[in-house]
Amino acid sequence: MWSSDHVYRDEAWGALRGRPLRYVLVSIISGTRPSASNPAGVVTVAQLVAQLQADGFVFAGRPSKVISDALRWEVRRGRVARLDRGVYRWVGAPQSTRSRISRRVRAVRRWLEWAIVQGRSQDRPNSLEPVLGSALTAPYGVFPP
Predict the structure, then answer these.
(1) Is residue 89 within 8 Å of 40, Cβ to Cβ?
(2) Is the whole-model pTM more than 0.85?
(3) CATH code assigned to 18-135
(4) Mean pLDDT across the chain
(5) In terms of C-beta density within 10 A (0-12 exposed, 13-18 middle, 19 or more buried), how is residue 68 classed?
């Protein structure tokens, strides 16, 4: 059960959701290769949450639920396999899809860097002007979700 001290800002400016979230997750999962410590090349939801939070992303809701819901779509598309509860593995995708995902992930990460420079971080999500006013100064082609 989640206590009230767990704050997940549904109203947070720039919370990662939708297609950008799915693409970032797919890029992380596809980059997970088999190794001595991870022979199956699997990734858990907890690892994904830790990675995204370390990168500075904010979630609109409980992170594990948001990620599991997003990965459900990718499992249906056949890009990711669900091996067990909270455990996923990269299956594959056509080159054109991988290229599109890679371009979008680069754009999302550029947007995050821009947002952090502008003072919007997980600690101060609503510290500057409204979203529409600030979107005009965002890097070309990268706008707040």
Answers:
(1) yes
(2) no
(3) 1.10.10
(4) 75
(5) middle
